Amino acid sequence: MVGRAPQDWNQLYRVLLRLLCLLPTGLPVRSVDFSRSTDNITVRQGDTAILRCFVEDKSSKVAWLNRSVIIFAGQDKWSIDPRVALEKRNPLEYSLRIQKVDVFDEGPYTCSVQTQQHPKTLQVHLIVQVPPKISNISSDITVNEGSNLTLMCKANGRPEPLITWRHLTPSDGDLNWEEEYLEIVKITREQSGKYECKAANEVSSADVKQVRVTVNYPPTITGAKNHKAATGKQATLQCEASAIPLPDFEWYRDDSRINNAQGMEIKSTGSQSTLMVANVTDDHYGNYTCVATNKLGIANASISLFKPVLPTIPNPLSESGPTDYFKLKGPGTAPGNTGSPCPTSSLLLLAASLLWLLCKC
What we know:
mainly beta, Immunoglobulin-like, 8-stranded mixed sheet, 9% helix, elongated
């Protein structure tokens, strides 16, 4: 029956209605308006649809049809679908109830009523809306910096959902792309991270999924500072590098690679590496080289271990203080000398005093 003309459908309806005794044989077919305007009922997938139909009296003969398929003839159910039933809240109601509506239920429905006066039909077009559902999305992916990348996100729904891409980073969080395919040309390390695909229509809340993009790039030394340490103390040289995949570290002194020996220990974790000298001697002072490598490149930095310079303390006897100005003249002070007492005069006075005491006794 594919491709049947509209007049063929109308003729088929008339035959079916006559078989059901809903359209008298002698009645002119033009009195039944099969081309009248159709009422639309919109129902979300999974909900229950009620197609309303009312008769004028209890003696009316009624039937429900879906295209050319008879669903109910009077109280007799012709459909084998368990989801379909009559809705009769009062004697004059002849509504059709369809539970758990799905997409294949969409289409035209006809309530045909034969009354004592004249036959009439009520045509209802059932529209089934489907919430958005992402059906296919790119898997998590790793690419090298500078290459091109295409992310794909497809979704189903009725009405057709709108696809929106968003880069979930602080810098690009406000950037949106409304396409099923997101194309990035010459991707950079700043464009790595999570990308969110959202499929939305007015039926229900949006369906959201994420794709993680990892961008590989060569190492860059981000932290390397010179260090000073006194002889006999412990010294730690630190080196930090940014890279994906995480870098491997090596340490060199001049052209010689340093190993965990002779009081030196290397520890590397993630993006950091340290060279520890347990007991610094004069031989340890000098320049060291930190080398970071991964499969995309290499980077190095020079770090200096140097000895702290102690401050010079001046000799206090070689400098005159401000108190010299306040020294007073007195007995024993040589003429012309305002700050140096004479020791000879003091001894003479002491001897004279002792002699006077002895004579008195």
